[in-house]
Amino acid sequence: MIAKILFFLLSLLLAIPSHAQRPRARDLGIQIGTLPTGTYNAITDVEGVLVGHVTLIEGSGELVVGKGPVRTGVTAIVPHGEDIYRNNVFAAAEALNGNGEMTGMAWVNERGQLEVPVVLTNTLSVGEGYSGVVAYMLKQGTGRVPLPVVAECYDGGLNDIAGRHVTVDHVVEAIEIATGGAVPEGSIGAGTGMRAYGFKAGIGTASRVVPDGHTVGVLVNANCGRRRGLLIAGVPVGREIPVQASPTRDGSIIVVIATDAPLVPHQLRRLCKRAAIGIGRTGTVSRTSSGDFALAFSTAYRLPRTRADRDTITTLRDNRLNAIFQATIEATEEAIVNAMCVAEPMTGRDNRTMPALPHDKLIEVMQKYGRRQAQE
Q: In this predicted model, what pLDDT tens digit does every residue of 157-170 receive, in sequence order?
């Protein structure tokens, strides 16, 4: 009896992340790439971009569909603080591998603009995500017919995904509480039940500032990769920290890219393709069963819906895009690593536990390969 009680208490502790966030990659002396980061090393370093999370953690033990355990949530990315439906931004999206869903992609690419907040959630809550964006938009003004952008990853390994615990109200809340500044990462919002490379993962973010002063910020929901393939700053961490039984389930990843550089849709779509390189640098090969999607937007211009004529715009020449490409690749790579570094171990349905990336072993491996900077 005492053993059962102790196991139950331990499960609760593992299920609920502590309030303080675990260190990020750079806090551990791991530097990825060569470009400098923004103030927060986050997507919110692009001025005006806001992020909101609603996290749902409830229950423990055996799965009972409709009751739990619940390990899921919603993350919203808002391009700017104005009414996005009336003040669109240039945007583009790309399916790197389509065994998943990002709604609204066709309209984003057809029109080259984004008219809604971007919402991330679990696979079976896409409908609630869609309805939540519509509900939020109609609160701003009636007569609107938005086409929501909702992207998903599967969290059924830890979560009662069939119970569909995300509601329309959760989605609206995530949008309404979105803020700038430092972005909480790991097991939070849409990342609550996610894992990557056999470690607990979820939401991660990073940013880069290019020589001409423009900023690129990336936010990912990392739920991808197999342990043996994991690379961090080029180091084969997955082979150095092996798992007892190699997991065979492939996952997904959603990448949201923001920049203040004046880019038009076809240029933004090129950023989406570069995100694939950043993902690949961590060891994910985008297998057939993966749902890997990227969306990029620029905050440089507001495109008023109510005005027929557009202001003249300028954009970057092709030879100035190279630094933006590098920034996108580096920030995507680091965002994925941050998701794993920050996330804590979590126990979910049927007492399944997803371990955290062990910082002590990670530091040891990085030092072995001479890839860790000395900490002050």
A: 999 999 999 999 99
Cβ within 8 Å of residue 130, ≥6 positions away: 103, 148, 150
Q: Which is catalytic among the residues 160, 207, 292, 298?
A: 292
Give the active site residue among 11, 125, 252, 298: 252
Give the active site residue among 11, 125, 290, 298. Answer: 290
Told to judge if 11 belongs to the known catalytic residues of this protein, a careful annotator would answer no
Report d(CA 154, CA 223) in Å as an integer: 8
- Supply the pLDDT for residue 16: 46
Torsion from C-alpha of 332, 338, 340, 342, nearest 10 degrees: -160
> Does the reported pTM lie above 0.85?
yes
DSSP-derived secondary structure for 279-321: HHTTT----TT-EEEEEEEE-S--EETT-SS--------GGGH
Q: Domains for the chain: give ranges and CATH numbers.
A: 21-368 (3.60.70.12)
Question: Active site includes 292?
Answer: yes
